[in-house]
Design brief:
heterotrimer; A mainly alpha; B mainly alpha; C alpha/beta; B: mainly alpha; two-stranded antiparallel ribbon; globular; C: alpha/beta; Rossmann fold; six-stranded mixed β-sheet; about 40% helix; about 25% strand
């Protein structure tokens, strides 16, 4: 039982890392980044490369999000920024096209086989929790998820930069008039969101390996999370991650075949009855 | 005769005489192009005219392909029966999926369609007994035109079947788009809120066009199975849905004939590039991204704009 | 005579904020009623409540004597209530003619005709031309609506609304953003169509000249409540109204 709970938390942690970024990008840029899942995948693969090059796990945890975040920022400023004023269909299509390019790029560079990463030595093995032996690495992921959640929350709520970001999210024109560099805020937020996704990928890789198709799997799950929690709400992403993590963990255990169907049913119900999610605001 | 009509007449003539002028390989390629063209055409109905972006349209193509494959292999019916089966199955599945999906708009709609399509893909992948799992169904025969009728096994004959289906579908779509229903769709695309405040609920319209688009996609899939001889889960995968979106954009969204051209260009690029590199997808993706930014009207859209300026 | 539109104790709260409260209105057929009030008085909310875009949290709306409070906007529209919007809401890429024609079609029916429908299209087109002509927009019929200047777009909105042959027309700031010349022209148009089509009109306006020019009666909202209701002369002299506009109103 506790084991299931921890499994759910692990999954929730990973989901949060991906969905928080997705939610932020929507809240602030009003764009759903279809390529977000591929940044997650990229994080996993780059993590593999970094570990292979440096021989250690920690550099990956630090360097990969930076690289992925920078790449995301570059992509935003060279493509996405030109089409903000267009109907949303074009932004959807653009990020979709980017997802395909990135996915194919990863396939070219790394080939079709999955890449595994070994967790660092002191995170291998299991920890005794009462009568339970639980993998240390998974506990690490849970802690990582919580730490990042707290950090993002504090950043947005307590810092000046966070205030600017929230202002741009609420009313970008006004924020622009008041001197905020809206374009730069957008680029930074997009980059940060990609960095979070990349971090999620690195964190996931020792558990799931880096494999093609990671991207699409996670984007659908992340989307369910943000639908449940509300696009644009970090608190919602946390709640949504917990709900989805729990549902998938227990669903996989008790009702393996129908777990996915239940997920989609929940998402469908929310979209129909409360489309702004549990924590979002009706537009 | 206006330039557009002349062009259309020329295209029809070219299609008509193709079997006698084209080499075997070229005819086979043209048949392939037409099938993908029909798929893209069906997507344009919801994308270009109603403004609904679906990330899961490939699912209906796939349903059509599987239905057709099963009918042909297990029941050895004439091809039109398989086509009907494919179209009907696609439409039938699209009904509940569409009902749910059209409760949402914009990105929510897109993601719902993606989620449902992935669900169907997973079913196709896992239900080995029915669908052959990841191997799919092979050995789908080209049977006959009607019971006791001429065989469609020859490339010429099957080409004509496909050409007739595609041109006919194009014609039917044009009629639909010009009807009062089609005009209502365009108004929904332009301003859904205003549509509602003018007295009608847009959702039934969206559902109807969603199902119609699925039926045409199913028809395309039902042609695909006997033509290629197999049905497999790949044709239901999101990548194929995405390629459909690319075909529509490249050809010209909202022009009906544009997406058919877009499909042809897309596949031709694939054919040409894949002889140089197996990673043609990246180049196509890059072209697509550039077109989204700079030429959102696609080939036909841009051509029309240039002609209007001249 | 039964009022065409009646509201009884109509109110709408958003959480703790009472946007509209206890509004009793009775608009007679053929009347041109102006609703005025300082910014934030709840005028547009009132329109949303009457047209059905918002459900009230208290009170009811009666149209032609029937309680329509439970009906959503599309249903009320089909009963004969049309409106324009404060922020122009048209179909940008469609032609001016098509904007109005679709309004006719949506009201008239036959919307699920997939094949043919040529007669339907022709009749609705003719009707659309009439409405466009009534607003002096007929020679712009072929242009995409998005290319029209602001003033013409405001008039297009009105054309779309009257094309549905409503009994009650709600105009939300029809002269907003218009130049003085355009304003005069629009006022003349509104007066003419009200007379020609025997329309009942409720008008939200900020421009007092327009209000006193057109209105048969004026209702004044302040903080969501009706503080005065009467002929233009009465309203002009009303101390409460003066206080609301010129006094310590927020």
């Amino acid at each position: 039982m506790v084991e299931q709970l921890l499994n759910a938390l692990t999954l929730a942690g990973l989901l949060f890392l991906v969905s928080a970024g997705l939610s932020l990008v929507f809240g602030i840029l009003r764009v759903v980044n279809f390529a977000h899942g591929v940044f997650y995948m990229l994080g996993a693969y780059l993590g593999f490369t970094t570990v292979a090059l440096s021989g250690a796990f920690w550099p990956a945890l630090v360097a990969v999000p930076l690289v992925v975040g920078t790449l995301g920022a570059l992509i935003e400023s060279s493509t996405l920024r030109f089409i903000y004023r267009r109907p949303p269909i074009y932004q959807l299509l653009l990020t979709f096209g980017l997802a395909l390019i990135l996915e194919e790029g990863i396939r070219i560079f790394y080939g079709p086989t999955a890449k595994g990463i070994d967790p660092p030595a002191y995170l291998e093995g299991a920890l005794r929790l009462g009568s339970l032996q639980y993998p240390r690495y998974r506990l690490f992921v849970v802690v990582l998820g919580l730490v990042v959640a707290a950090a993002v929350w504090l950043f947005l709520r307590r810092t000046r930069a966070g205030l600017v970001i929230r202002a741009v999210a609420q009313n970008s024109e006004m924020a622009d008039c008041l001197g905020a560099d809206v374009a730069r805020v957008r680029t930074l937020v997009f980059g940060a969101a990609c960095a979070l996704a990349g971090l999620g990928g690195v964190a996931a890789a020792p558990m799931t390996t880096a494999y093609l198709g990671m991207g699409i799997g996670v984007i659908v799950d992340a989307f369910v999370v943000v639908v449940i929690g509300g696009l644009g709400s970090i608190g919602g992403s946390m709640a949504g991650s917990l709900i989805v993590g729990a549902a998938q963990t227990w669903g996989a255990f008790y009702l393996p075949e129908t777990a996915m169907v239940i997920m989609y049913a929940v998402m469908g119900a929310i979209l129909i009855f409360r489309p702004w999610g549990l924590f979002g605001e009706p537009e | 005769m206006s330039p557009a009509r002349a062009l259309a007449a020329a295209a029809l003539a070219a299609l008509a005489i193709a079997p006698w002028v084209a080499a075997r390989y070229q005819l086979s390629l043209l048949t392939d192009l037409l099938i993908y063209g029909l798929f893209a055409l069906s997507l344009d109905l919801i994308m270009g005219y109603t403004g609904m972006v679906s990330f899961g349209h490939a699912a209906y193509f796939g349903l059509g392909a599987y239905a057709s494959a099963l009918v042909l292999i297990h029941f050895a019916q004439p091809i039109p029966v398989a086509l009907l089966a494919g179209a009907l199955l696609a439409g039938a599945v699209a009904l509940p999926i569409g009902w749910f999906s059209t409760r949402a708009t914009g990105i929510y709609f897109a993601m719902l369609t993606l989620a449902f399509a992935q669900l169907l893909y997973t079913v196709a992948y896992k239900w080995r007994d029915l669908t052959g799992g990841s191997d799919g169904i092979a050995g789908v025969p080209k049977t006959e035109l009607f019971w006791g009728g001429p065989s469609l096994a020859s490339p010429h004959a099957f080409y004509f079947l496909v050409a007739v289906c595609v041109v006919g579908s194009l014609g039917l779509c044009r009629v639909i788009v010009r009807s009062p229903f089609g005009r209502a769709l365009e108004a929904i695309r332009e301003n859904e809120r205003r549509f509602t405040s003018l007295g009608r609920d847009p959702r039934p319209f969206k559902l109807v066009v969603f199902v119609i688009a699925a039926v045409f996609a199913g028809l395309a899939g039902a042609l695909f199975a006997p033509f290629r001889g197999f049905a497999s889960p790949e044709v239901m995968f999101w990548v194929f849905s995405g390629q459909g979106l690319m075909m529509v954009i490249m050809g010209g969204i909202g022009t009906l004939v544009g997406p058919i051209l877009g499909a042809m260009v897309f596949i031709l690029i694939q054919e040409v590039l894949s002889s140089y590199t197996e990673h043609w997808m990246i180049f196509t993706g890059a072209v697509f991204v550039l077109m989204v930014i700079f030429l959102p009207g696609g080939l036909v859209g841009t051509a029309r704009r240039l002609r209007a300026r001249a | 005579m039964t009022p065409l539109l009646e509201t009884r104790g109509l109110g709408r709260a958003f959480g703790a904020l009472q946007a509209v409260a206890g509004v009793d209105l009775a608009v007679e057929p053929g009347e041109l009623r102006a609703v005025i009030g300082p910014n934030g008085a709840g005028k547009t909310t009132l329109f949303h409540l009457i047209s059905g875009l918002l459900a009230p949290t208290s009170g009811c709306v009666l149209f032609r004597g029937d309680d329509v409070t439970a009906l959503p906007a599309p249903a009320r529209c089909r009963r004969g209530i049309s409106r324009t919007f404060q922020i122009t809401s048209i179909f940008p890429e469609l032609s001016v003619l098509e904007n109005v024609r679709i309004a006719v079609q949506l009201r008239a029916g036959g919307n699920f005709r997939l094949i043919g429908g040529r007669t339907l299209l022709e009749t609705s087109e003719r009707s659309a031309h009439d409405s466009l002509a009534a607003l002096g927009l007929d020679d712009l019929a072929a242009q995409p609506a998005a290319t029209l200047p602001h003033g013409d777009q405001r008039r297009l909105e009105i054309a779309m609304a009257i094309a549905q042959e409503p009994a009650l027309l709600l105009l939300d700031e029809p002269t907003q953003g218009l130049s003085p010349e355009d304003t005069v022209a629009t006022v003349a148009v509104i007066r003419r169509i009200a007379r020609e089509r025997a329309l009942t009109i409720i008008l939200v306006e900020h421009d007092m000249d327009v209000v006193f020019d057109l209105a048969d009666r004026i209702s004044v909202l302040h903080f969501g409540r009706l503080i005065a209701d009467g002929t233009p002369a009465l309203i002009r002299a009303n101390a409460d109204v003066q206080a609301a506009y010129l006094g310590d109103a927020g």
